[in-house]
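Per reviewer request, we include the raw input and output of the structure prediction for the construct analysed in the revised manuscript.
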Amino acid sequence: MSQPSAFRVDVLEGARIAVFSLKANRLRTVLTTLGIGIGVATLLAIVGIIQGLNTSFHQQLATFGANTMYVSKFPWMIKGDWWKYRNRKNFTLDQLHRLRTLAPFVTAMSPSVSRLSDVAHGGEQLSTVRIQGVTHEYLNISGYEITGGRFLTEADDATTRPVAVVGADVVDGLFPGVSPVGQSIRIDNRSFQVVGTLSRKGKMVGESMDLLVFIPFKTFYSSFGKGRGFEIAMAVEDASRIRSAEDQLTGILRRVRSTPPGAEDDFSINRPEAMAQTYEQLTGALYGVAVGVGLITLLVGGIGIMNIMLVSVRERTREIGVRRALGARKRTIVFQFLMEASSVSAVGGLLGTTVGLGTAKVVSLITPLAADVQPMTVVAGVGFAALVGLLFGIWPAARAANLDPVEALRYE
C-alpha cells in the first residue's frame, strides 16, 4: 500500500487536534459560533427578503406583458417637479382616433380611465374598488383572462350599456360561493349587470390587482363625468421590437399632440421593462446598505474568532513548544489553527443560515414582504462564513507556527 503524503498527514493531524481542542473548550466554541452565526443569519435574512421582493416585483410586472406600452401624461415613476406633469394637456378622443390610424404596428389599443368607488351587492359592500373604463381590446393588452361569462364588447361601448366584468377579489367579497354572472352590482348607487369574471393576478407593490371592476369606456364617462383624463394602453405584435415601436410611437405622438419642434415631450410612454429598471435603481442603494449592515455584523463575528484564537495560542504555547520539539512542522501547526477557526465559522454559518432562512420565511408569512432565498445564496452564506474563519485565523495560526520552540517550552 502507498504511504499517505506528508500534506495529507498534516491535514488529518491538524483536523484531529482541532476537533479535540474545540471539544475541550465547549463554552468558548459555542460563544464564537454564535457570533459568526448571528452575522450570517442577519445577512441571509436581509438578502432573502430583498431577493423575495425583487422576484415578486418582476413576476407581477410580467403580467403586464413584454409587448405592452401605456401612454399617459404622467410617467409611472415621477422624478422631479410633479406640477410639470400635472400641467400637461389631457389626451382627447380625437388624438386617440388619429393614433389608431398612424400606428399600424399596434395590434391592440384601448383608452383607460379609472376611479375608486364603493361596490355593493345585496347586503355586502366593498370600499375603494378600482372602477376602470376600457374598450373590448383591453383584454388583449392587460394580461387578464376570463374565468366566467365574457369580456366587454364593442357593442357594449357603443351603446353605453351598464355592464361590468369583475375581478377575483370582488367575486370573493360580494359573491362568496355563487357565480356573479347575470347578477347586478351597485357602483355609487348605479346598477350594473355582471357579464364576466377575471382571473386572479395578485398584488402589485402591495396593491391588489383583483379589487377592480371593468365597465365600458363610454359608460364610465356617461356615469361618472368626462372631466378625467385617460391613458392609452396598447400592445405590439413582436415584443423583441418594442424599443423600435416606442421610438416610432414617440414621433407619432408628437405629431398627434402638435408638440412644437425642439420642445420637450408632453407625454410619457410607460413600459413594464422601464419600470423594472427604475425600481432596481431605487432599491439598489437600499440593497447595498442592507447587505453592508449584514457584512459588518459578520465582520464583528470574524474579529471575535481572531481574538479567541489568539487567546487559544497563548494558552497552548507550551503544548505548541512540545509539538515543535518533537518534530511537528510549522504547516502542521498552521493547519491545526486554521481548521479550528474555519470549523467554528462553518458551523456558525450553517446555524446562521437556518436561522436566517427561518426569519425570512416568518417575515414573509406575517407581513406583505416576500422572501425568496436562492440556493446559491445559501451555499455562499456557509462558504463565506468558513472563509471569514480562515481569513481571521491566519494571523493567530502564523503566530502559533512561528513561536520559538525553546521559549515556548519555558512558557508557564
